[in-house]
Specification:
The complex is a heterodimer of chains A (298) and B (375).
Chain A: H1 2-32, H2 39-56, H3 61-82, H4 92-114, E1 129-132, E2 135-138, H5 139-161, H6 163-173, H7 175-180, H8 185-208, H9 221-232, H10 237-261, H11 273-284
Antiparallel strand pairs in A: 1-2
Helix pairs in contact in A: 1-5, 1-8, 1-9, 1-10, 2-3, 2-4, 2-8, 3-8, 5-6, 6-8, 9-10, 9-11
Chain B: H1 20-24, H2 31-49, H3 53-78, H4 86-101, H5 110-134, H6 137-157, H7 159-162, E1 168-169, E2 175-176, E3 179-180, E4 185-186, E5 189-190, H8 193-217, H9 219-229, H10 231-236, H11 241-267, E6 269-270, H12 277-290, H13 295-314, E7 322-323, E8 332-333, H14 334-352, H15 356-370
Parallel strand pairs in B: 7-8
Antiparallel strand pairs in B: 1-6, 2-3, 4-5
Helix pairs in contact in B: 2-8, 3-8, 3-11, 3-12, 3-13, 4-5, 4-6, 4-11, 5-11, 8-9, 9-11, 12-13, 12-14, 13-14
Classes of the chains: A mainly alpha (298), B mainly alpha (375).
């Protein structure tokens, strides 16, 4: 039982990170109809910015994280303005490929500035743990779950109650009608990319904190957050969070129980488990759990 | 879904096709036939006067990439099905080559193992195809992305077949009717490994180009393009969606496996690290830079991008800022520079020239056709 609880906790912490990344995908997708493959690059960049502010500019850790989140938001909005704005009206394939191209450029920019070596993020959590019965809770995982819950609650409140949030939902629902109501679609696009960049940065920081260390490879988590987003449905923020938790917990359980139940699946099967879950769910529900079914006309 | 291939953008005046018969032509007319003859002569004589192993290997890799890119362009450019999983099928072909052609395994002769690898790829592609019936656009892109990861997992774990993480030797015999392409000698002359493979690879490029060109100009090709332009409308005018989508996946994967088989037998060694997402992206970059939805664009793209990594590696000493060794002071490594250039080319071409080098070529041709009255 304690092993199960331990895995459940680990999975929830992992799922919280996936949820942050997947929510970033969904916000951009709802506003602009683009799946942003460069999210992984933004995530790594955000974590490196936090490192730079903390280590090089000698700011306190909390302040460095806030600064990095803001900077990442600005970078996200700038990306939209400089590159993606030119792709409006282009086919899905072209837009997806542009974001993949940006991912490559971002990754290589990071390695040419900070190198390939693993760095210490300088977070105060380190390898500390808290014991609850037989379950060992890592401090950074507790912080991750807490921060993610706080941020997610803030976003759902933002979408529900703030004027800009409602404008964003209106634009996602019907762009032309929103424009006719005087909503600035440009502002909505910029804010969406900004929020998404900030979320990516936060996910990056929680991922690189503690024993994990900061390396250019952390952007790869975005590739596992894809299944999380798809499982929940491309355009459902709630679905993204649920999808993140499903994927995170499944992955942790696979790590823990694979040797007992299906050792034949090969070593490190947990790494590909998210994709297996995704394919199974898509076979039953082609638009994910909460995705809107696309209406197709001739 | 519309692709930047044939349906949008400014009119290209190089394509002055006036009659339906001209549109159906396989070989073009007049000057185009002369151009083709020149290409055949180049094909026959390049290995005689180009003996440098470096340049021959650049051309050999480009030829392999051209075959794979033709397959991807058929699927993505002509049928509009986005696939990030091309590298998986390339890997499948490479391992199939080791299995069908290796002397310790089945030990089949060259044409047979090439055919078997292609067929194997096509069969697996046909199994993946039905997903394209249920999923569209972004969902399909991410499922094919999953294929890469699942494939890599299989390559690493089916140790008996693939040799696991450490890879496997590919020692398939490359001989056919007494011609051993790995160690070619005829009329009293001996040719190197690279020279022999040049003839083998580019001969197959010509064959595949002919097949693809023939496919896209005829009825099935028009059906595929109708599916690309709007699949519901295509279905309404009588195109069987299932048949053509699955068929496109099968042919595309078959060609990818053929490219993979050549890749394996040319390198004589393959490991799972080679068939990751980066390889898929390289193939997508090839068709974007060459021209999405064009046959000869795939080959131009493969020549430009297939040769690029080798060139950067060779001339990295003279490019400023590139570090070649661990003690060097450059800010970017050769590998990083390659990746960054692929990314940059994809972004720049899509933003500024979404129809690729093929469109640039047609514009240049049109300019000289009307010269000096180029308006």
């Amino acid at each position: 039982m304690s092993e199960f609880l331990q895995l459940l906790f680990n999975g929830t912490a992992l799922g919280a990170r996936y949820a942050l990344v997947a929510l970033g995908f969904v916000i951009i997708y709802r506003a602009t109809g683009v799946i942003n493959f460069a999210q992984g690059g933004l995530l790594a960049l955000g974590a490196y910015l936090a490192y730079a502010l903390n280590d090089t500019a000698a700011l306190p850790f909390a302040l460095a994280v806030v600064g990095a989140v803001l900077l990442s938001g600005v970078i996200g909005a700038a990306t939209e303005r400089v590159v993606l704005r030119r792709m409006v009206g282009q086919p899905v394939f072209a837009v997806v490929m542009v974001t993949i191209g940006m991912l490559f450029i971002l990754e290589q920019t990071i390695t040419s500035i900070w190198g390939f070596e693993a760095l210490n993020l300088g977070d105060p959590w380190g390898v500390q743990t808290v014991r609850a019965g037989d379950v060992v809770l890592a401090t950074r995982d507790l912080w991750t779950i807490g921060l993610a819950a706080l941020v997610l609650a803030a976003f759902f409140a933002f979408f529900r109650f703030s004027k800009l949030g409602v404008a964003m939902r209106a634009t996602a629902f019907d762009q032309e009608a929103a424009l006719a109501q005087g909503i600035s679609a440009r502002r909505v696009f910029a804010v969406s990319w900004g929020i998404s960049g900030g979320l990516a940065c936060l996910a990056g920081v929680t991922l690189a904190a503690g024993p994990a260390a900061l390396s250019p490879g952390i952007g790869a988590i975005a590739l596992i957050a894809f299944p999380a987003m798809i499982v929940g449905g491309l355009d459902s923020p709630g679905g993204a969070v649920l999808g993140g938790l499903i994927i995170g917990i499944t992955q942790a359980m696979t790590t823990g129980y694979q040797d007992d139940f299906f050792p034949w699946a090969g070593s490190n099967f947990a790494a590909v488990m998210p994709y297996v879950v995704m394919v199974l769910i898509l076979l039953v529900r082609p638009y994910g759990l909460f995705g809107t079914k696309e209406v197709r006309r001739i | 879904m519309r692709l930047p291939g044939t349906t949008r953008g400014p009119k290209v005046h190089g394509l002055m096709t006036r009659r339906y018969e001209d549109d159906l032509r396989l070989f073009g007319s007049g000057k185009a036939k002369l151009g083709l003859l020149a290409l055949v002569l180049l094909y026959v004589f390049i290995p005689f006067f180009l003996t440098s192993d470096f340049w021959l290997s650049v051309l050999d890799y480009a030829g392999i990439a051209a075959i794979g890119a033709l397959g991807l362009n058929l699927l993505t450019g002509f049928t509009g099905q986005v696939s990030l999983g091309h590298a998986f099928f390339i890997g499948l072909g490479a391992y199939a080559c080791a299995q069908f052609g290796g002397p310790d395994e089945l030990g089949l002769p060259l044409p047979v193992w090439l055919f078997c690898a292609t067929l194997f790829g096509a069969l697996v592609g046909a199994l993946i195809g039905p997903f394209a019936l249920r999923l569209r656009g972004n969902y399909l892109a991410i499922v094919t992305l999953g294929l890469i990861f699942l494939g890599e997992h299989l390559f690493r774990n089916l140790k008996d077949i693939t040799g696991g993480n450490s890879g496997t030797n590919v020692d398939s015999e490359a001989s056919f009717l007494g011609l051993d392409f790995a160690d070619l000698s005829f009329a009293g002359e001996n040719f190197s490994f690279n020279q022999g493979y040049f003839w083998l690879i580019w001969g197959l490029v010509a064959l595949v180009t002919l097949l693809v060109k023939n496919l896209v100009r005829t009825r099935p090709g028009r059906a595929l393009q109708a599916v690309r332009d709007r699949d519901v409308a295509a279905e309404v005018i009588g195109v069987q969606l299932g048949r053509y989508k699955v068929g496109a996946f099968a042919i595309s994967s078959g060609l990818a496996a053929l490219a993979g088989a050549l890749f394996g037998s040319y390198q004589q060694f393959v490991s799972p690290d080679e068939f990751g997402l980066v390889l898929s992206i390289q193939y997508i970059a090839i068709i974007i830079v060459g021209g999405v939805g064009t046959v000869f664009g795939s080959i131009i793209g493969a020549l430009v991008l297939g040769g690029l990594p080798g060139l950067i590696d060779k001339y990295s000493d003279s490019i400023p800022g590139v570090s070649t060794g661990s003690g060097d002071s450059g800010f970017i490594s050769v590998f990083s520079l390659n990746q960054a250039i692929f990314g940059l080319l994809i972004v720049l071409f899509l933003v500024f020239e979404p129809r690729g080098l093929a469109a640039v070529w047609l514009r240049v041709k049109a300019y000289f056709k009307a010269w000096p009255f180029s308006y």
